[in-house]
Amino acid sequence: MSDHFDNVSVNKKANLYFDGKCVSHAITFSDGTKKTLGVIFPSTLTFNTGAPEIMEINSGKCRIKLAGQSEWQSFEGGQRFDVAGNSSFEIETIETLDYVCHFG
Length: 104
Fold this sequence. Notes:
Elements: E1 8-10, E2 15-17, E3 22-29, E4 34-40, E5 43-48, E6 53-66, E7 73-76, E8 80-83, E9 88-103
Antiparallel strand pairs: 1-3, 2-3, 3-4, 4-9, 5-9, 6-7, 6-8, 6-9
């Protein structure tokens, strides 16, 4: 995947979740596609999804457990994982995670 995005609108107001443990900015492409760019500081959090998501990790390390699964999976910079829509996942960030979340 590319290391930059061209021709996007950026929401300059940050999205703050979990008392600032997750900070992101929403971007919208000319075709209406949306993504968020952000960081998750070392913590253990649970995210709920509406649309399906692809979490692309730019740097950092984490473990995730998808809804309905009992095993944790490890991921780090350069990897990605998929999350079903209308679902959830637990994430334990071991090192600050720099990520892109692709929706839909």
